[in-house]
Automatic annotation (TrEMBL):
Domain HTH araC/xylS-type: 437-535
Species assigned in the record: Cohnella soli
Coiled-coil intervals, chain numbering: 106-133
Protein name stated in the entry: Response regulator
Entries under Pfam families matching the protein: GGDEF_2, HTH_18, Response_reg
Response regulatory domain segment(s): 2-117
Lineage of the species this protein comes from: Bacteria, Bacillati, Bacillota, Bacilli, Bacillales
Keywords: Coiled coil, DNA-binding, Phosphoprotein, Transcription, Transcription regulation
PANTHER family associated with the record: ARAC-FAMILY TRANSCRIPTIONAL REGULATOR (PTHR43280), HTH-TYPE TRANSCRIPTIONAL ACTIVATOR RHAS (PTHR43280:SF28)
List of residues that carry 4-aspartylphosphate: D52
InterPro entries (UniProt xref): CdaR_GGDEF (IPR041522), CheY-like_superfamily (IPR011006), Homeodomain-like_sf (IPR009057), HTH_AraC (IPR018060), Sig_transdc_resp-reg_receiver (IPR001789)
Length: 536
């Protein structure tokens, strides 16, 4: 979209230019007053004119009148420091599109730009109804179309007929016979030091999509973008002439996109490109390939274009899932509060990938999922639900996959486990007796069953060794001695009632070996069960 800014105040004029460039608009001209603007219009045909209302010489309203008298098309937006109904009424009567007050709010500016683009598109479609303007018209899609495209790309189980139906319902028609999905990830998006607000993220995504769509359009490619976390996903509808040299031509186009984003938005991108297909049923495969290719930045670095590989991932001697032994070591490190031990285990898991090439990114993603799943499971075992301070398991997995490289991924995991240990320790300081009280309640309820150190420690989500140590600190008695004494005390109560034989009491307190029960009872009380029952 070509834009002309008419503003006599230099700082305001430059600020508007910067705001527009941030949103991906590059074809911008400026004028200092109405007369200067009319001269500019002789060589520059803007789609949108942003004009101050009060300027020396010819003001904004006079300029608007001249433009309409000349029959010049274009959306005209008046900008003023004065909230005057009279000005606004006159501007509307002369054909102004809208009226904005200074200082200009970012959200209002973006809303006006979107409305202006919609209006321009409709005018272009009406003026060129019988002309070949399909490429430009398809550039502008409303929200419903973007949602339809997103479903078309992401849904794995749609068959070919269902995909065509979804497109027809959204009034989307492809001009070319080939399809491809690309994913552009913003480098450093997950870095806490980037401090990107939600508004900033939206603006940058808008700008990137705008730049890419314009450049692809110059290459004859129709572009259908939608946003997704730290990424902008593009469905490309590609002319048939790309079939013989798609990789070379697309690499040139995407490199140009990345260069323009660096220049105008001061951001770097990692771009993953899926395979080209002539079957819309395979679009989801291209999307999966593009996502995997974009993930290659973790191992190969960012600020690059990665194309989906054609070969199957090779077998490697690297971890893709956490085994039981490692899981138990992690549990022990978490409950002991040993940050270095846990960090060491995390480094062991990821160390093989530092010497691997990008083709192993699929295995790395599996490991990321295994780490997130295992950590959440262990934290729940330790009565410290991680959702409270980490968010959902899926959110953590996505953030791991958004890391710029292996070093930042490792740092993210280590920081995450440090936070988990801090939360475990804080919970114990606030509720130091909770686990032991839970263990005692379990003994009272299940003493008559086959319970022991393993089952009780599992109930309170501790390792047997750690539970035994904590139990003795709390009750000044080891667990086995405590359980035996508790059972014998219960046996004494039952024997005193006179309602049960010694053999029955033995089973009722969870000691199925009668000889063992007799020996233990006499050792603790000095009497046999029979003598104790008779009151001797």
């Amino acid at each position: 979209m070509k834009i002309l800014i008419v503003e006599d105040e230099r700082l305001t004029r430059e600020s508007l230019v910067d705001s527009l460039r941030l949103r991906g608009y590059s074809d911008i001209e400026t004028a200092t007053d109405g007369n200067d603007a009319l001269q500019t219009l002789d060589r520059f045909k803007p789609d949108l004119i942003l004009s101050d209302i009060r300027m020396p010489g010819m003001d904004g309203l006079q300029l608007l009148g001249h433009i309409r008298d000349k029959g010049i098309h274009g959306v005209f937006i008046i900008i003023s420091s004065y909230d005057s109904f009279e000005f606004a009424q006159k501007a509307v009567r002369l054909g102004a599109f809208s009226y904005m007050l200074k200082p200009i709010d970012d959200r209002e500016l973006e809303d006006q730009l979107e409305r202006a683009e919609t209006s321009i598109r409709r005018e272009q479609e009406q003026r060129n109804e019988n002309a070949d303007t399909g490429l430009l018209a398809r550039k502008y899609r409303n929200l419903a179309q973007r949602q339809a495209i997103q479903k078309f790309v992401e849904e794995e189980h749609l068959n070919e007929e269902e995909r065509w139906t979804a497109l027809r319902e959204a009034d989307i028609r492809f001009e070319h016979p080939l399809y491809l999905v690309a994913k552009a990830k913003i480098d450093g998006y997950a870095d806490p030091e980037s401090h990107l607000s939600v508004v900033d993220q939206s603006l940058y995504a808008f700008g990137i999509a705008n730049i890419a769509s314009e450049l692809m359009l110059h290459g004859g490619i129709d572009t259908y973008p939608f946003t997704q976390d730290d990424s902008i996903v593009f469905l490309l509808n590609v002319p048939v002439e790309y079939a013989s040299s798609a990789t070379e031509r697309l690499e040139t186009l995407w490199s140009h996109v990345a260069a323009q984003v660096r220049s105008h938005l001061k951001l770097t991108l990692t771009i993953g490109v899926g395979s080209l297909t002539d079957n819309i049923a395979d679009v989801n495969d291209s999307y999966t390939q593009a996502s995997k290719a974009a993930m290659s930045r973790i191992m190969g670095g960012g600020n690059r274009v990665y194309f989906a590989g054609s070969s199957e991932e090779k077998r490697i001697e690297a971890t893709i899932a956490i085994d039981y032994l490692t899981e138990q070591k992690l549990l022990h490190g978490l409950e002991q509060g040993s940050k270095e031990a846990v960090r060491g285990l995390i480094r062991e898991l990821y160390s093989p990938y530092f010497s691997r090439s990008n083709e192993f990114i699929g295995s790395l993603m599996k490991l990321n999922f295994s780490v997130a799943f295992t950590l959440f499971k262990l934290m729940h075992q330790l009565d410290t639900p991680p959702e409270r301070f980490l968010g959902s398991e899926l959110k953590v997995y996505r953030q791991m996959n958004q890391c710029a490289d292996l070093s930042s991924l490792l740092s993210y995991c280590e920081n995450m486990t440090d936070v988990c240990i801090d939360e475990i320790q804080a919970g114990r300081k606030l509720n130091p007796d909770t686990s032991m009280a839970k263990a005692l309640a379990y003994i009272v309820e299940h003493y008559d069953q086959d319970i022991g150190l393993a089952s009780v420690s599992e109930h309170v989500h501790m390792s047997p060794a750690y539970f035994s140590k904590q139990f003795k600190l709390k009750y000044n008695q080891n667990f086995i001695e405590f359980l035996i004494q508790f059972r014998i005390n219960k046996a004494k109560e039952l024997l005193k009632s006179g309602a049960y034989t010694a053999q029955e009491v033995s089973r009722m307190v969870g000691i199925n070996d009668e000889k063992h029960f007799f020996r233990t009872f006499k050792k603790i009380t000095g009497l046999t069960p029979g003598s104790y029952k008779k009151g001797n």
